[in-house]
Amino acid sequence: MDVVVDLLEREIKAGKPMSSRQRAQTALRSLLNAHNRTPRNTDLSLAFFNRHFPIDGWDPVKMPTLTQVTYIGYRKRARGVIKRALGVSRRENELRARVDGWTDVNTWLRNMPKICQSKI
Questions:
Q1: Is the pLDDT of residue 117 over 80?
Q2: Cα–Cα dist 73/77, whole Å
Q3: Which of 3, 22, 60, 95 is 20 to 30 A from 83 (CA-CA)?
Q4: The pLDDT value given to residue 36
Q5: pLDDT (tens digit, 9 = 90+) per residue, 37-76?
Q6: How far is CA 22 from the centre of its chain?
Q7: DSSP single-letter state for residue 95
Q8: Whole-angstrom Cα distance, residue 34 to residue 87?
Q9: Can you count the helices (H) and strands (E) in the chain?
């Protein structure tokens, strides 16, 4: 996960807003710290992150300094920057921006009269 921290630091040096990137670093470090890990000794993997930090994974015993709301916020920030570091966000944006035949089919289906839709 050192790659994630490096990415955030490079973005700060490039002039992007510092406060949101520092909050993302804090979020990542705090979550990893709850599992006795650091960015240095943790592999960059979205699967690892999802497995160890599920959306309903807040544990007051392991994370006594975090509230559930803070955990969810930290998870969202950290997961987002991990996706950016892995290039997943860029790929998702490319797929969302794609206009193909399925877009036309979707539009056609949405504009069908209700009587026809019930037979599909």
A1: no
A2: 6
A3: 60
A4: 92
A5: 999 999 999 999 999 999 999 989 888 989 999 999 999 9
A6: 16
A7: H
A8: 26
A9: 7, 0
